[in-house]
Design a protein that fits this description.
With 201 residues, the chain is α/β, with parallel strands linked by helices. Helix content is 30%, strand content 15%. The strands form two sheets. A three-stranded parallel beta sheet has the order 1-2-5, with helices on one face. Strands 3-4 form a two-stranded antiparallel ribbon.
Protein backbone atom coordinates (compact mmCIF):
# COMPACT_ATOMS: atom_id res chain seq x y z
CA UNK A 1 0.00 0.00 0.00
CA UNK A 2 1.23 3.48 -0.86
CA UNK A 3 1.69 6.21 1.74
CA UNK A 4 -0.30 9.43 1.45
CA UNK A 5 -2.14 10.91 -1.51
CA UNK A 6 -3.22 14.51 -2.05
CA UNK A 7 -6.48 14.65 -3.94
CA UNK A 8 -9.22 17.12 -4.81
CA UNK A 9 -12.63 16.96 -3.23
CA UNK A 10 -15.14 15.41 -5.64
CA UNK A 11 -18.85 14.69 -5.96
CA UNK A 12 -19.43 10.93 -6.34
CA UNK A 13 -16.29 10.73 -8.50
CA UNK A 14 -15.30 7.97 -10.94
CA UNK A 15 -13.86 4.57 -10.11
CA UNK A 16 -10.33 5.83 -10.79
CA UNK A 17 -10.60 8.22 -7.84
CA UNK A 18 -11.45 5.44 -5.41
CA UNK A 19 -8.78 3.21 -6.89
CA UNK A 20 -6.25 5.80 -5.73
CA UNK A 21 -7.91 6.14 -2.35
CA UNK A 22 -7.96 2.37 -1.79
CA UNK A 23 -4.25 2.17 -2.57
CA UNK A 24 -3.16 4.76 -0.01
CA UNK A 25 -3.12 4.68 3.77
CA UNK A 26 -3.64 8.43 4.25
CA UNK A 27 -5.87 10.66 2.15
CA UNK A 28 -5.42 14.43 2.19
CA UNK A 29 -8.24 16.46 0.64
CA UNK A 30 -7.36 19.83 -0.89
CA UNK A 31 -9.49 22.54 0.73
CA UNK A 32 -7.36 25.64 0.17
CA UNK A 33 -7.36 25.74 -3.64
CA UNK A 34 -9.61 28.08 -5.59
CA UNK A 35 -12.71 26.37 -6.93
CA UNK A 36 -12.41 25.04 -10.48
CA UNK A 37 -15.49 24.92 -12.71
CA UNK A 38 -16.41 21.96 -14.93
CA UNK A 39 -14.50 19.40 -12.88
CA UNK A 40 -15.48 16.42 -10.75
CA UNK A 41 -15.54 18.73 -7.73
CA UNK A 42 -19.24 19.31 -8.26
CA UNK A 43 -20.24 16.86 -10.99
CA UNK A 44 -20.38 13.18 -11.86
CA UNK A 45 -21.64 10.96 -14.65
CA UNK A 46 -24.09 8.09 -14.31
CA UNK A 47 -25.34 5.73 -17.01
CA UNK A 48 -28.89 6.29 -18.22
CA UNK A 49 -30.81 4.44 -20.91
CA UNK A 50 -29.60 7.12 -23.33
CA UNK A 51 -25.92 6.98 -22.36
CA UNK A 52 -23.81 8.92 -19.84
CA UNK A 53 -25.79 11.54 -17.94
CA UNK A 54 -24.21 14.53 -16.21
CA UNK A 55 -25.29 15.34 -12.66
CA UNK A 56 -24.03 18.72 -11.47
CA UNK A 57 -24.37 20.32 -8.03
CA UNK A 58 -25.16 24.04 -8.50
CA UNK A 59 -23.01 26.36 -6.42
CA UNK A 60 -22.72 30.04 -5.59
CA UNK A 61 -19.58 31.77 -6.89
CA UNK A 62 -18.03 35.00 -5.67
CA UNK A 63 -17.83 37.99 -7.99
CA UNK A 64 -14.12 37.36 -8.58
CA UNK A 65 -14.70 33.64 -9.25
CA UNK A 66 -11.58 33.00 -7.17
CA UNK A 67 -13.32 31.46 -4.22
CA UNK A 68 -11.56 28.84 -2.06
CA UNK A 69 -13.19 25.43 -2.41
CA UNK A 70 -13.81 25.37 1.34
CA UNK A 71 -16.07 28.45 0.97
CA UNK A 72 -18.15 27.19 -1.97
CA UNK A 73 -21.80 27.06 -0.92
CA UNK A 74 -24.44 24.88 -2.57
CA UNK A 75 -27.34 26.58 -4.37
CA UNK A 76 -30.54 24.88 -3.24
CA UNK A 77 -32.84 27.06 -5.37
CA UNK A 78 -32.21 24.68 -8.30
CA UNK A 79 -33.91 21.60 -6.73
CA UNK A 80 -30.86 19.58 -7.74
CA UNK A 81 -31.35 17.00 -4.98
CA UNK A 82 -34.64 15.78 -6.44
CA UNK A 83 -33.17 15.79 -9.95
CA UNK A 84 -30.12 13.75 -8.94
CA UNK A 85 -31.98 11.25 -6.80
CA UNK A 86 -34.67 10.68 -9.43
CA UNK A 87 -32.00 10.24 -12.11
CA UNK A 88 -30.22 7.65 -9.96
CA UNK A 89 -33.49 5.82 -9.37
CA UNK A 90 -34.35 5.85 -13.08
CA UNK A 91 -30.90 4.57 -14.05
CA UNK A 92 -30.23 2.00 -11.32
CA UNK A 93 -33.54 0.86 -9.88
CA UNK A 94 -33.16 -2.42 -11.77
CA UNK A 95 -29.49 -2.92 -10.85
CA UNK A 96 -28.70 -5.86 -8.55
CA UNK A 97 -27.63 -3.86 -5.47
CA UNK A 98 -29.52 -0.59 -5.78
CA UNK A 99 -31.89 -1.30 -2.91
CA UNK A 100 -28.99 -2.16 -0.59
CA UNK A 101 -27.01 1.06 -1.01
CA UNK A 102 -29.20 3.83 -2.40
CA UNK A 103 -30.62 4.83 0.97
CA UNK A 104 -27.16 5.64 2.31
CA UNK A 105 -26.41 7.91 -0.68
CA UNK A 106 -29.88 9.44 -0.56
CA UNK A 107 -29.52 10.31 3.12
CA UNK A 108 -26.38 12.40 2.56
CA UNK A 109 -27.70 14.19 -0.54
CA UNK A 110 -31.01 14.96 1.22
CA UNK A 111 -29.24 16.42 4.25
CA UNK A 112 -28.98 19.90 2.64
CA UNK A 113 -25.43 20.58 3.76
CA UNK A 114 -24.36 24.19 3.22
CA UNK A 115 -20.91 23.65 1.74
CA UNK A 116 -19.84 21.55 -1.24
CA UNK A 117 -16.75 20.35 0.63
CA UNK A 118 -18.91 18.91 3.42
CA UNK A 119 -21.27 17.22 0.96
CA UNK A 120 -18.38 15.62 -0.91
CA UNK A 121 -16.64 14.51 2.27
CA UNK A 122 -19.77 12.88 3.70
CA UNK A 123 -20.48 11.12 0.41
CA UNK A 124 -16.87 9.92 0.22
CA UNK A 125 -17.10 8.56 3.75
CA UNK A 126 -20.37 6.80 2.88
CA UNK A 127 -18.80 5.25 -0.22
CA UNK A 128 -15.74 4.10 1.74
CA UNK A 129 -18.05 2.48 4.29
CA UNK A 130 -19.93 0.68 1.51
CA UNK A 131 -16.61 -0.50 0.05
CA UNK A 132 -15.39 -1.59 3.50
CA UNK A 133 -12.33 0.63 3.16
CA UNK A 134 -10.99 2.24 6.33
CA UNK A 135 -8.67 5.18 5.69
CA UNK A 136 -7.42 8.23 7.54
CA UNK A 137 -8.93 11.37 6.03
CA UNK A 138 -7.52 14.85 6.54
CA UNK A 139 -7.41 18.27 4.87
CA UNK A 140 -4.68 20.57 3.64
CA UNK A 141 -3.93 23.61 5.82
CA UNK A 142 -2.33 25.71 3.09
CA UNK A 143 -2.20 25.67 -0.70
CA UNK A 144 0.85 24.40 -2.53
CA UNK A 145 1.07 24.67 -6.35
CA UNK A 146 1.15 21.39 -8.26
CA UNK A 147 4.71 20.31 -9.07
CA UNK A 148 4.36 16.73 -10.32
CA UNK A 149 4.90 15.05 -6.98
CA UNK A 150 3.93 11.39 -7.26
CA UNK A 151 1.39 11.63 -4.45
CA UNK A 152 -0.33 14.77 -5.84
CA UNK A 153 -3.43 13.79 -7.82
CA UNK A 154 -5.46 17.00 -7.46
CA UNK A 155 -5.49 17.87 -11.15
CA UNK A 156 -4.98 14.46 -12.77
CA UNK A 157 -8.53 13.16 -12.69
CA UNK A 158 -10.66 15.47 -14.80
CA UNK A 159 -13.58 15.09 -17.24
CA UNK A 160 -11.72 17.36 -19.67
CA UNK A 161 -9.04 14.89 -20.69
CA UNK A 162 -8.57 11.17 -21.21
CA UNK A 163 -7.13 9.07 -18.43
CA UNK A 164 -4.54 6.31 -18.62
CA UNK A 165 -6.38 4.41 -15.87
CA UNK A 166 -7.19 0.88 -17.05
CA UNK A 167 -10.67 0.34 -15.68
CA UNK A 168 -11.83 -3.25 -15.31
CA UNK A 169 -15.06 -3.99 -17.13
CA UNK A 170 -18.13 -5.08 -15.21
CA UNK A 171 -21.74 -5.72 -16.15
CA UNK A 172 -23.67 -2.45 -16.29
CA UNK A 173 -27.45 -1.98 -16.34
CA UNK A 174 -27.47 -0.85 -19.97
CA UNK A 175 -24.46 -2.91 -21.04
CA UNK A 176 -26.35 -4.74 -23.79
CA UNK A 177 -27.19 -1.54 -25.66
CA UNK A 178 -24.24 0.76 -25.01
CA UNK A 179 -21.34 -1.59 -24.35
CA UNK A 180 -19.14 -0.92 -21.34
CA UNK A 181 -18.96 2.79 -20.47
CA UNK A 182 -15.90 3.81 -18.40
CA UNK A 183 -15.29 6.83 -16.16
CA UNK A 184 -18.71 6.79 -14.55
CA UNK A 185 -19.42 7.63 -10.92
CA UNK A 186 -18.41 5.08 -8.31
CA UNK A 187 -22.13 4.50 -7.66
CA UNK A 188 -22.41 2.80 -11.05
CA UNK A 189 -19.89 0.20 -9.90
CA UNK A 190 -21.48 -0.16 -6.46
CA UNK A 191 -25.07 -0.56 -7.65
CA UNK A 192 -24.00 -3.12 -10.26
CA UNK A 193 -21.43 -5.20 -8.37
CA UNK A 194 -22.27 -4.72 -4.69
CA UNK A 195 -19.87 -6.45 -2.26
CA UNK A 196 -17.45 -7.20 -5.12
CA UNK A 197 -17.01 -3.50 -5.97
CA UNK A 198 -13.77 -3.15 -4.04
CA UNK A 199 -12.12 -5.89 -6.10
CA UNK A 200 -12.56 -3.74 -9.24
CA UNK A 201 -10.56 -0.84 -7.80
Amino acid sequence: MAGKILISTAYLPPVEYFSLVSGADKIIFEKEENYLKQTFRNRCYILSAHGPQLLSVPVYLGSSHKTPIKEIRIDYSKRWQQIHLRAMQASYNSSPYFEFYFEKIEKVISDSLEYLLDLNTELTEAILEILNIERRLSYTTSFEPADNKAYDHRYRITPKKQSSFAEKKYLQVFDTTAGFVPRLSIIDLIFNTGPEACSYL
